């Protein structure tokens, strides 16, 4: 059980969203860390719907490409990267979530900067700009620092970076100045010391163009060919989705059938009813279907967006890229009559801008003439730029066009941001990063009195809309909604669309009122949310009972620290409990709270390995349900052997979990204990389920009865003083053996042709025989190399022997069984019978 000192996240209920950069294994480790420090984590698999965001204090994700992101921002709930957890732990307080936002608009959010010998004014400006755009500042050089701002590579801090070979980029202040002026993060390589390109190359030297990944599949609104779907073992992005193709797409029956086939293969289906759709694919920002879908907050995109989902099988918002959203039949006010030419943009970036100009209502010309009004250029060096300036044309970068399109308003070309061209940078590298503004779209294209038309109470974004819905629709939602489980955070009594059960649900003890800081989302989002509430005012009276439900209904969700929620939970109000509008739903909320309140304290921390009922693909849901049931019995399932009080296994295993648990003196039980507890629905005595495996005991030459006693006597110091090396590519992996050695107090390192030290505080190996005291401890006389008898591994033996002999010690090359037998029996063994020699070498590959 977490101690009082380690309950940093005690008031936090967190949702961990898996993605390509945050796989399930990493999410599990993160959830364990949060549990150890009092948090309540819930893991959501890629493609699965996020449960009602109002239940959470934080969402953890490496990307903003998940369907509930916009709703989360509207609810002012922070979305943070996994690094936020480690930073909070290191500072022993919940750090500002803004500096750990995955939002690409905070383009400095991966940067930790320190400053060298630069003027104080420049230093203050850089620090302020970096922090404002999501980055962090460090006063000294550390492992966390990513960039050192300096004027020379000979400064004190620069020497520290070079001496310690730190992964820190030393850049001129000009890089930050250019990034902040543009509002975009450009490549730092032209600004890097000791030989920065911006100071070395002349103005006429061609500028190297780097790849722009943001424009892949996003350079046109009308793609020519249906893509080949991305093959993946992950859940399809269309699983369980209903997709409507609008008639204004103008596609033939053959293409429509092909699209339908792809969608159905991914678990989706076609629909002709916009009210039941999860996605609407259309060409124009007009028509009943477009306006209805937009007001219901259904994803509205064009064919290019649909094709991207098919290609990459990863959700992205159709607002993320300008040409993934339907176009308007009429252009941006003020763009009619404009004649725009392009310079220095090539490839996908040029095609993208040509299509964007057409979508804005202007004319894109291949050549530049005096009748042109604007020149959009990627840098300031070209014949077109010279001619445009002589003719008095507006010379701007692509940000002017993107901002005008996103805001649907002609932006002033006089804004310095649009006329800034960094040296040695082609701005085509950062084209396509501007997002559409939903508030602008609503005001211009689908604004209306939402309360007049029947709408769904629960939207595809888990967002509450207090408006009238047809009774049959409401019944369907209630029938499809999953029953509440105490293993999933419940909270605000809101009715939401059926959410797919995440693959992993992890909740610890309750009794926490969240008081963590809110998200620092923009004032615009907050004002827009408030404005929408005023529009819905006529319907609020129809939902008077809903608003009085236990937990209440508040736009965007509720915090655990909300006063009325705390009162409802602790029952401090003398007033009688309000009657819920929907009896079954009210009972569901109250019953969930009762179950959480009655959840028993943790009686044991159980490490489980080899439990066959959880082994195999497709058993994740059963594993999650069983672990929740065990927690309700007082058994906390843990992944870290150090935290375990008991370990359950079907037999004596050589898994890392099992072997490490033995080192910590965990009580050993059979996995029958788990099955029996689940069946009886009560915590049984683990003493009644001892692990018995006589065959393995005879094979490995130890008795289970004595292992726990030996471990308690060893106190994780059995291998203290031992230095054990591993050959590369050892079967089972170096990390596994390293964890076993360290769990028993030793040092484990990779052998790559030389002897290295795990701890810098220890003295370096020396040829001086008197550099280390002599004694009888094996660590003072012998060094060990774990290896196999393969030709590949034997090539490292001569070098190991020579390196050890050079420091006046004895080399011992042994099989991994030597380490495993000691770790499992918790008693040291002589290396003689495990030693490898050249006559044992088998010509084989591991």
TrEMBL record:
Compositionally biased region (Polar residues): 487-503
GO cellular component: Cul8-RING ubiquitin ligase complex; nucleus
Source taxon at top rank: Eukaryota
GO process annotations (BP): DNA double-strand break attachment to nuclear envelope; double-strand break repair
Pfam families xrefs: BRCT, PTCB-BRCT, RTT107_BRCT_5
UniProt-annotated stretches for the region Disordered: 453-529, 554-601, 761-780
Acidic residues bias (residue ranges): 576-588, 766-775
Domain BRCT: 4-102, 102-193, 233-323, 335-418, 606-691
InterPro entries for the chain: BRCT_dom, BRCT_dom_sf, CellCycle_DNARepair_Reg
SUPFAM superfamilies: BRCT domain
Compositionally biased region (Basic and acidic residues): 471-483
SMART domains: BRCT
Gene3D superfamilies the record matches: BRCT domain
Listed PANTHER family: REGULATOR OF TY1 TRANSPOSITION PROTEIN 107 (PTHR47667:SF1)
Name used for this protein in its record: BRCT domain-containing protein
Organism: Penicillium olsonii
């Amino acid at each position: 059980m977490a101690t009082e000192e380690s309950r940093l996240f005690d008031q936090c209920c967190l949702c961990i969203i898996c993605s390509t950069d945050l796989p399930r294994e990493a999410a599990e480790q993160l959830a364990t860390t949060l549990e150890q420090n009092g948090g309540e984590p819930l893991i959501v698999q890629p493609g699965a719907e996020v449960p009602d965001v109002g239940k959470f204090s934080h969402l953890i994700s490496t990307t903003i490409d998940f369907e509930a992101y916009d709703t989360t921002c509207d609810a002012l709930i922070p979305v943070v990267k996994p690094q936020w957890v480690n930073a909070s732990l290191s500072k022993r307080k919940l750090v500002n979530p803004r500096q750990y936002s995955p939002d690409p608009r905070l383009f400095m959010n991966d940067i930790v900067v320190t400053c060298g010998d630069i003027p104080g004014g420049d230093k203050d400006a850089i620090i302020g700009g970096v922090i404002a755009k999501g980055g962090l500042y460090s006063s000294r050089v550390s492992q966390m620092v990513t960039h050192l701002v300096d004027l020379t590579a000979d400064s004190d801090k620069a020497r520290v970076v070079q001496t310690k070979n730190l992964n820190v980029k030393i850049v001129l202040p000009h890089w930050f100045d250019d990034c902040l002026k543009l509002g975009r993060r450009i490549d730092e390589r032209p600004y890097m010391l000791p030989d920065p390109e911006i100071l070395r190359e002349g103005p006429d030297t061609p500028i190297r163009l780097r790849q722009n990944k943001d424009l892949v599949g996003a350079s046109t609104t009308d793609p020519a060919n249906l893509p080949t779907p991305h093959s993946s073992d992950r859940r399809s992005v269309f699983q369980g989705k209903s997709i409507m193709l609008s008639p204004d797409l103008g596609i033939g029956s053959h293409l429509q059938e092909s699209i339908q086939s792809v969608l159905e293969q991914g678990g989706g289906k076609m629909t002709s009813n916009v009210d039941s759709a999860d996605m609407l694919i259309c060409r124009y920002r007009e028509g009943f279907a477009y306006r209805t879908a937009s007001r219901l907050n259904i994803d509205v995109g064009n064919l290019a967006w649909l094709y991207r989902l098919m290609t990459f099988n990863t959700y992205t918002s159709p607002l993320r890229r300008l040409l993934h959203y339907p176009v308007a039949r009429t252009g941006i006010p003020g763009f009619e009559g404009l004649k725009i030419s392009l310079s220095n943009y090539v490839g996908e970036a040029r095609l993208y801008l040509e299509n964007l100009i057409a979508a804005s209502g202007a004319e894109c010309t291949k050549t530049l003439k005096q009748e042109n009004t604007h020149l959009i250029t990627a840098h300031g060096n070209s014949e077109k730029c010279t001619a445009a300036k002589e003719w008095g044309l507006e010379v701007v970068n692509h940000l002017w066009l993107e901002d005008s399109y996103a805001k649907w308003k002609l932006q002033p070309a006089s804004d310095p941001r649009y006329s800034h061209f960094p040296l040695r940078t082609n701005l085509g590298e950062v084209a396509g990063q501007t997002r559409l503004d939903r508030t602008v779209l609503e005001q211009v294209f689908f604004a209306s009195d939402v309360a007049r038309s029947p709408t769904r109470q629960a939207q595809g974004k888990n967002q509450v809309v207090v408006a009238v819905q047809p009774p049959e629709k409401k019944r369907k939602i209630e029938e499809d909604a999953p029953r509440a489980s105490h293993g999933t955070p419940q909270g605000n009594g809101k009715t939401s669309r059926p959410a797919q059960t995440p693959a992993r649900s992890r909740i610890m003890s309750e009794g926490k009122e969240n008081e963590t800081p809110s998200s620092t989302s923009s004032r615009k989002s907050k004002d827009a949310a408030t404005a929408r509430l005023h529009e819905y005012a006529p319907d609020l009276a129809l939902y008077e009972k809903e608003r009085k439900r236990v937990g209440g209904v508040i736009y965007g969700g509720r915090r655990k620290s909300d006063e009325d929620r705390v009162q409802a939970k602790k029952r401090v109000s003398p007033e009688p409990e309000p009657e819920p509008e929907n009896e079954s739903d009210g009972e569901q909320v109250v019953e969930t709270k009762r179950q959480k309140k009655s959840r028993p304290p943790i009686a044991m921390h159980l490490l489980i390995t080899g439990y066959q009922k959880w082994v195999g693909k497709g058993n994740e849901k059963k594993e999650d349900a069983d672990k929740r049931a065990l927690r309700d019995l007082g058994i906390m399932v843990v992944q870290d052997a150090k935290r375990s009080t008991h370990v359950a296994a079907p037999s004596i295993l050589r898994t890392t979990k099992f072997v490490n648990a033995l080192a910590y003196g965990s009580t050993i039980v059979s996995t029958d204990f788990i099955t029996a507890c689940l069946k009886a629905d009560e915590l049984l005595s683990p003493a009644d389920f001892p692990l018995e495996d006589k065959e393995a005991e005879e094979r490995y030459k130890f008795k289970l009865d004595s292992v726990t006693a030996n471990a308690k006597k060893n106190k994780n110091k059995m291998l203290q003083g031992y230095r054990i090396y591993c050959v590369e590519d050892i079967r089972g992996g170096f990390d596994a053996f390293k964890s076993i050695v360290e769990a028993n107090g030793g040092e484990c390192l990779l052998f790559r042709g030389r002897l290295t030290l795990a701890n810098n505080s220890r003295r370096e190996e020396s040829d001086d025989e008197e550099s280390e005291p002599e004694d009888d401890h094996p660590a003072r006389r012998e060094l060990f190399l774990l290896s196999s008898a393969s030709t590949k591994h034997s090539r490292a033996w001569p070098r190991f022997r020579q390196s050890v002999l050079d420091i006046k010690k004895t080399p011992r090359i042994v099989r991994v069984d030597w380490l495993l037998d000691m770790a499992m029996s918790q008693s040291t063994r002589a290396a003689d019978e495990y030693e490898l020699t050249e006559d044992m070498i088998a010509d084989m590959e591991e």
